[in-house]
Amino acid sequence: MKYFGTDGFRGEAGKVLTADHAYRIGRYLGWYYNQDHKGRIVIGKDTRRSSYMFEYALVSGIIASGSNAYLLHVTTTPSVAYVVRTEDFDCGVMISASHNPFYDNGIKIIDGNGHKMAAKVEEAIERYIDGESPEIPFSEGEDIGIATDYAIGRNRYIGYLISLATRSYSGKRVGLDCANGASFSIAKSVFDALGAKTYVIHTDPNGLNINKDCGSTNINSLVELVKAKDLDVGFAFDGDADRCIAVDNVGRVIDGDHIIYICGKYLKNRQKLDGNHVVVTIMSNLGLFKALDQAGIEYDVTKVGDKYVNEDMEKNGFVLGGEQSGHIIFSRYATTGDGILTAIMLMETILESKTDLKTLASGMQKYPQLLKNVRVEDKQAVLDNEAVQACCKDIEEELGDNGRLLLRESGTEPVIRVMVEASSDQLCQRYVDIMIDCIKKQGLA
User: Fold this and answer.
1) What gap in Å lies between CA 94 and CA 321, rounded to an integer?
2) What phi and psi, each to the nearest 5 degrees, are found at residue 147?
3) Which of 47, 68, 99, 271 yields a CA-CA distance of 20 to 30 A from 207?
């Protein structure tokens, strides 16, 4: 598709993604859901400066087409998905570029069941944006829609998260890094209500500091907090809080692969891992695959993107899946990755296992991993090149069972990603360099 990727319409605000795009998306959605009843569309946003611009543009488009808009204001992506599926909305819109810098933004559309919008609807929106479909008539008089404050929906989501915990967190010292993003007004409330002693950082959004040197993509400040305050555990979220990366009591980073292993093993031991399966992506660490084999847990491997993880889970009825980046889906409780929910599930595992996160993670040993990007003119030409394929085969044979090579084309950039996992950093560097040199010698870089 031209505008919508695996995670909505995303790009630099005001340049790639403009207020006019948002307005026309609102116009189409407002018309689409206003055919046989008054359309109801709920909107959330993160703390980027441009999120307000896109919110007002979307609202204008929606009500001009006759539907009603309900504003959750600053909230998380999973909260929008929760409100949509539990409160009879036709669809939801989240304004966020997730873990990206403040100058980027995005528009994610969520269907009435809380899942990402069907591609055919996104394609129809793209045609309307480009003027390739008939202009939509404006509503008039009493048919014009209204915009309503709906902060109560966010509060109900907070209540839902609290209700999922089965025990008190009293006596637990917990660090939270809210990335100056959407979780700043939610995460602390949840953990305080559950009885934890919370230490919270990066909760002062100014529109420009979301994800800046903080959150799940920059874990260093949370590691320092956990060590300095002698905390039991720390959790870092990204800008829209659909990711979670944890830190154990000694400051070791527990990423999405560790979380899948810990929670998968916990669920299996309690006969709650439906199908004895988890769903991961091709970017998951080799150490995770070996640890799952050791634990007797089967796994499906999808393309990168929580969209593909969720599709596999839905199709097969699996209850746990996710990505190394911290997008974890617990399908019994949510239809999307949810960082705060993930933190709650880890706390449940820690408390019921009567141990600490360090011990729970010790059964999985990560392999050193190196990823480098190569800018190319034709991504498919690289993957189809015989010399490149032969080089890949040679490296894979040399690595054997103690490593792997992955060549993957970026979905958003003219880039081939070269990733190697091996028993040492030196071997990772060596084989990544060999692969990149091969691509360059073929004149493909």
Assistant:
1) 22
2) -110, 135
3) 68
How many Cβ atoms are within 10 Å of 352's Cβ, its own excluded? 13
Token reading at 173: 């010292």
Question: CB–CB of 109/81 below 8 Å?
Answer: no
Q: What angle do CA 376, 380, 384 make, to 5 degrees?
A: 115
Q: Which tokens sit at 128?
A: 């309307």
Catalytic residue among 79, 98, 284, 325: 98
Percentage of the chain exceeding pLDDT 90: 96
Indicate yes or no: pTM above 0.90. yes
Residue whose pair of structure tokens reads 């969720």 in the numeric block: 310
Tokens 């880039």 appear where?
A: 415
98 is catalytic: yes
**What CA–CA distance (Å, rounded) separates 115 from 436?**
38
Average pLDDT of every residue of the chain: 96
Alpha carbon distance 210, 47 (integer Å)? 7
Q: What are phi and psi of 340, to 5 degrees?
A: -70, -40
3-state secondary structure the chain: CCCEECCEEEEEECCCECHHHHHHHHHHHHHHCCCCCCCEEEEEECCCHHHHHHHHHHHHHHHHCCCEEEEEEECCHHHHHHHHHHCCCCEEEEECCCCCCCCEEEEEEECCCCCECCHHHHHHHHHHHCCCCCCCCCCCHHHCCCEEECHHHHHHHHHHHHHHCCCCCCCCEEEEECCCCHHHHCHHHHHHHCCCEEEEECCCCCCCCCCCCCHHHCCHHHHHHHHHHCCCEEEEECCCCCCEEEECCCCCEECHHHHHHHHHHHHHHCCCCHHHEEEEECCCCHHHHHHHHHHCCEEEEECCCHHHHHHHHHHHCCCEEECCCCCEEECCCCCCCCHHHHHHHHHHHHHHHCCCHHHHHCCCCCCCEEEEEEECCCHHHHHHCHHHHHHHHHHHHHHHHHCEEEEEECCCCCEEEEEEECCCHHHHHHHHHHHHHHHHHCCCC
Longest Cα pair distance anywhere in the chain, in angstroms? 72
pLDDT in tens, 210-268: 999 999 999 999 999 999 999 999 999 999 999 999 999 999 999 999 999 999 999 99
Amino acid at 392: C
Do the beta carbons of residue 260 and residue 319 sit within 8 Å? no
Cα distance from N-terminal residue to C-terminal residue, the chain: 25
Question: In this structure, what DSSP letter does residue 363 have?
Answer: T
Instruction: Taking the CA atoms of 107, 113, 119 and 121 in sequence, report the sign of the dihedral they define.
Output: negative
